[in-house]
Design a protein that fits this description.
Rossmann fold, 12 helices, eight-stranded mixed beta sheet, 2 domains, five-stranded antiparallel beta sheet, GMP Synthetase, Chain A, domain 3, alpha/beta
Length: 447
């Protein structure tokens, strides 16, 4: 364990408060180093760069970084499942130096395998230690991790980071939801980490199956990841009211690492851990790099210190927007307003209107009359886009249902500029999810 002063708000005070000039100089040097490494060690990357007419010494400034070709998940799928099996041409170290295997969830297609050396895994833990410390985790915390430990990275790195900063760390493992709640109650856990969906689901289970008020447990902080939600104000408020705990957001990915975190100041955005990552925002229409606040775009990101299977200019598909304000925590890192707004894969046009599923979540979770779960389906009916929204309610009178329906339709029209076919269901009848929720279904794409 590393012994640190608990009163200091930064895990690494030097890196987290670097001047912009020094930070960008560090990023450039690290980018040049990882680019040179991948060019020499990865057959996949070297071929990609040679086809673009690029060699590492072409990158002399951060502006030059945009000359480097991007990598997409589909490209990684194409080069894997071959020798050295199963990582293929992107592996940059001998196979016997790989100590960690993870794979993506496969929610958007065939899983991608991720190799890490022990040095990479220590890097993962350091990234997570930075965000946990920023959210107020300290050695006197007892942290409960209610997730199924398996081949997905999930909160594996969070587990090791929690230990690294000195917390007592309790794995939830194969326990079911009820057993996890009872174990949290038994040991007096003070913090936990899960998807926003599962945190809400645990609250439902605690109340309706165990007769336990989540607010009466000892949890005082919750870190959410895996899906948008913890920075959607209505969802954050709903979780905080149920658990009487502070809720923090985090963003990362198997192929990228733990790149973004909300800090204890809760300024309404995600910090980019810029000492470890280089984040660029790409215009959705033109592909140009956005450098000014106020315009959303697609996050293209580089993990600056990951060596086994590098992540260099990876197209994350996450939609983000630079914040014009500086967080009052004192960190010099960039801030993404509202965190990850959505996924480029999910943001779609319906009846000519651009729709982000997170906007629907914001409306549903803002209405106390509705349950935690919902489901959205977009399809075609006689060549006309049609949206249906399934929600849960705890009332049955016709008059009350009509009132809720009118209020919901009005709010959705105001926030998304679209009309919806509302369908009501009893509490507890819509699907529940432990990891990533699948609430938005665009059947037009399948058609």
């Amino acid at each position: 364990m590393i012994f640190v002063n608990k009163s200091i708000p930064y895990w690494n005070p030097y890196l987290e408060t670097l001047s912009r000039e020094d930070l960008e100089e560090l990023q450039l040097r690290k980018f040049q180093r990882i680019l040179d490494w991948t060019y020499k060690q990865s057959k996949f990357h070297r071929t990609l760069y040679q086809n673009a007419g690029l060699v590492p010494h072409d990158i002399k400034s951060l502006d030059d970084v945009r000359l480097v070709p991007k990598v997409e998940k589909s490209m990684m799928r194409d080069v894997q499942r071959k020798e050295p099996f199963p990582y293929g041409d992107a592996l940059c170290v001998p196979l016997d130096e790989v100590t960690e295997f993870r794979q993506t969830s496969g929610t958007t297609g065939q899983p991608v395998y991720q190799a890490d050396t022990w040095q990479d895994w220590e890097w993962w833990a350091e990234c997570w230690a930075t965000l946990l410390w920023a959210q107020g985790y300290r050695p006197d915390d007892r942290v409960f991790l209610p997730f199924g430990y398996n081949v997905f990275v999930a909160f594996w790195a969070a587990h090791y980071a929690s230990e690294k900063i000195g917390c007592e760390t309790v794995p939830g493992g194969i326990l079911d939801t009820q057993a996890r709640i009872l174990k949290m109650q038994e040991v007096g856990a003070t913090a936990m980490m899960a998807t926003p969906t599962y945190v809400l689901g645990m609250a439902d289970t605690a109340v309706n199956k165990l007769g336990i008020d989540p607010a009466q447990l000892h949890i005082n902080k919750i870190t959410c990841a895996g899906e948008p939600g913890a920075l959607i104000l209505s969802t954050k408020k709903r979780i905080e009211e149920l658990w009487k705990a502070k809720v923090f957001d985090h963003s990362g990915a198997t192929e990228i690492g733990a790149w973004g975190f909300e800090c204890a100041s809760q300024s309404g955005g995600l910090h980019v851990n810029e000492a470890m990552f280089l984040a660029e925002i790409e215009d959705l229409d033109t592909g140009q790099i956005i450098t000014e606040p106020g315009k959303p775009g697609k996050l293209v990101i580089t993990a600056l210190d990951r060596i086994a299977q590098p992540c260099v200019r990876f197209d994350s598909k996450d939609i983000v927007e630079l914040d014009s304000c500086q967080c009052n925590c004192g960190r010099t890192y960039k801030l993404f307003k509202g965190g990850v707004i959505g996924r480029a894969d999910d943001i779609t046009k319906v009846k000519g209107v651009l729709l982000a599923p997170s906007a629907i979540e914001g409306v549903v979770r803002s209405m106390p009359e509705l349950g935690n779960e919902y489901e959205v389906t977009v399809d075609k009916r006689k060549d006309i886009d049609h949206i249906s929204l399934k929600v849960e309610v705890g009332v049955s009178s016709e008059g009350e249902l009509r009132r809720i329906e009118g209020k919901l339709k009005t709010e959705l029209r105001l926030k998304t500029n679209l009309g919806y076919d509302i369908q009501f269901f009893q509490l507890g009848t819509l699907p529940r999810y432990e990891v990533k929720a699948k609430r938005f279904k665009d059947l037009r794409k399948k058609g």
